[in-house]
Specification:
Helices cover 26% and strands 29% of the residues. The protein is α/β, with parallel strands linked by helices.
Length: 385
C-alpha cells in the first residue's frame, strides 16, 4: 500500500518544511518534497494533513505500561498497554521491566522476545532492575535487587534472544563495570540509574560504554557544588543520552530547560509510564508493589515515593513546548531522533525522510494527536467532533 501525505507542516530534527508532501510505500518513506507532489505519483491512498503538523512517530525508551495494564503482566496486558500509547503518538516502544525474581524476569523477557518477533513496533525490552542500589530503589522492590552476576546476566540475555535493548545499572555495585563490558559487547544499551554513583564512578561507567542516564535527576544524587554526581557526568559526555520524564512532576520545567541547554541534542523524553497512563486514578500493581494514583500522580501506596508516571509522549511534547519553552523542533527531536540514536537506530527511525520508517503523527495546532501511522499503516484516528 502506498500513501501520499499532502499539505503538511513537517517538523523533525532537521527542521520545518511548509506545504510538505511525503510518499510512503509499504513500511518505508520513499520520497518527500514541498509544494505539489509530482503528477506521476499514483498512491493507493491520499492523506490531506490540511496544514497541520506532521512529525515522526514517537519512540519511548522507557515505559512500564498504560491503559490499566503493565508490561510485567503477560502478552494480553502488553497488547492493551501498547494500544494506549500508540493512540498518543508512540509508534515504537521499548518495554521496561521492574525488579522481580530472576525466574519472572526470564519469563517476561521471553514473552517480549516473542512479541518483538511478530510486531516490529516493539523494539525489545529494558531491564530497569535488578542491578540497582537499594538506597535508590524507588518503585523497585528492594528484596529483588542484587549485585551483578555474569552467570545470571547470561541467563537473562539468553531469555531475551537478542531483544534486550537496554539495561539500567548502578555502576558502583560490585561487578557492575565488568558487566557493562559484557553488555556493550552484546550490543545492549547500558544506562546508569537508580544509583548512589559519584561523578567519577558515573564517568567511568560512561568510559566503559554506558550511553544513557535513566530518568535524569530521579533516583540518583542531585547536583551539589562539591559533588556534581552522575547528572553532570552525563551532561559533560557527548556520547550520553539523557532520559527525562517531562510531566511537570518528576522534574521542574526550569530544570528540564537546563537539561536541554546542557546536553543539546541528547535529551530523550520518556514516559516511565505505569499502568495508569491513559487510565484513571486508583490502585495499581507495579511488579510486586502497589501504586496509588491520585490526581494523575503515582506513588508507592502509603509513601510519598514517586512510582513511575501517568505520562504519554504527546503530553510530554506539550509540557516541553508550553511550560518548558523548548523550541518545537528540539522538543520533537527529543521524542524521535534522539531516542532512535540512543538505540543505534538513527539511520532508520526518527526522521521524515526517504529511507526512514513510515512512522508519522499528525498533530493539530495545539499539539494534540489527530492521526497516527506506524510502519505505513494507520493505528489511530481521533474521533471527529
Amino acid at each position: 500500500m502506498s500513501i501520499l501525505f499532502e499539505h503538511a507542516r513537517k517538523l523533525d530534527a532537521r527542521g520545518q518544511v511548509d506545504d510538505f508532501w511525503m510518499l510512503v510505500d509499504g513500511d518505508a518513506i520513499v520520497s518527500t518534497g514541498s509544494g505539489h507532489a509530482p503528477s506521476d505519483i499514483r498512491p493507493t491512498t491520499r492523506v490531506d494533513v490540511s496544514g497541520g503538523w506532521l512529525v515522526p512517530g514517537f519512540i519511548d525508551l522507557h515505559g512500564h505500561g498504560g491503559g490499566g495494564h503493565s508490561y510485567d503482566d503477560g502478552v494480553g496486558a502488553i497488547g492493551a498497554a501498547l494500544a494506549t500509547h500508540r493512540a498518543h503518538g508512540t509508534t515504537r516502544s521499548v518495554l521496561s521491566l521492574v525488579a522481580n525474581p530472576l525466574t519472572s524476569l526470564r519469563t517476561s523477557l521471553t514473552e517480549i522476545a516473542d512479541i518483538a518477533e511478530a510486531d516490529p513496533l516493539v523494539l525489545g525490552a529494558h531491564l530497569e532492575g535488578p542491578f540497582l542500589a537499594k538506597g535508590r530503589s524507588g518503585a523497585h522492590n528492594p528484596e529483588y535487587l542484587r549485585s551483578p552476576s555474569p552467570y545470571e546476566m547470561e541467563e537473562l540475555l539468553q531469555s531475551a534472544r537478542g531483544t534486550l535493548r537496554q539495561i539500567t545499572v548502578a555502576p558502583e555495585l560490585p561487578g557492575a563495570l565488568e558487566m557493562i563490558d559484557v553488555l556493550v559487547e552484546a550490543g545492549v544499551a547500558v544506562a546508569v540509574g537508580h544509583t548512589e554513583a559519584t561523578f567519577e564512578q558515573a564517568k567511568e561507567a560512561f568510559d566503559r560504554g554506558a550511553r544513557v542516564l535513566t530518568h535524569a535527576f530521579n533516583a540518583m544524587p542531585g547536583i551539589h557544588h562539591r559533588a556534581p554526581g552522575p547528572v553532570v557526568a552525563a551532561f559533560d559526555d557527548d556520547r550520553v543520552t539523557v532520559e527525562l520524564v517531562l510531566d511537570g512532576i518528576h522534574v521542574h520545567p526550569e530544570v528540564a530547560a537546563m537539561a536541554f541547554s546542557s546536553a543539546p541534542g541528547r535529551v530523550a523524553l520518556v514516559t516511565d509510564a505505569m499502568a495508569a497512563a491513559g487510565s484513571h486514578d486508583g490502585d495499581y500493581s507495579l511488579g510486586s508493589l502497589t501504586v496509588t494514583v491520585r490526581g494523575g500522580i503515582a506513588t508507592l501506596r502509603g509513601t510519598p515515593t514517586i512510582a513511575g508516571s501517568t505520562l504519554t509522549q504527546d503530553a510530554a511534547l506539550r509540557v516541553a513546548i508550553e511550560r518548558t519553552h523548548i523550541e518545537p523542533r528540539l522538543a520533537v527531536e527529543a521524542l524521535t531522533h534522539t531516542p532512535a540514536r540512543a538505540l543505534g537506530l538513527g539511520d532508520r527511525h526518527g526522521l521524515l525522510a526517504p529511507g526512514y520508517a513510515a512512522d508519522a503523527v499528525a498533530l493539530d495546532h495545539d499539539w494534540r494527536v489527530v492521526h497516527v501511522w506506524a510502519a505505513g499503516r494507520p493505528v489511530f484516528a481521533a474521533p471527529r467532533d
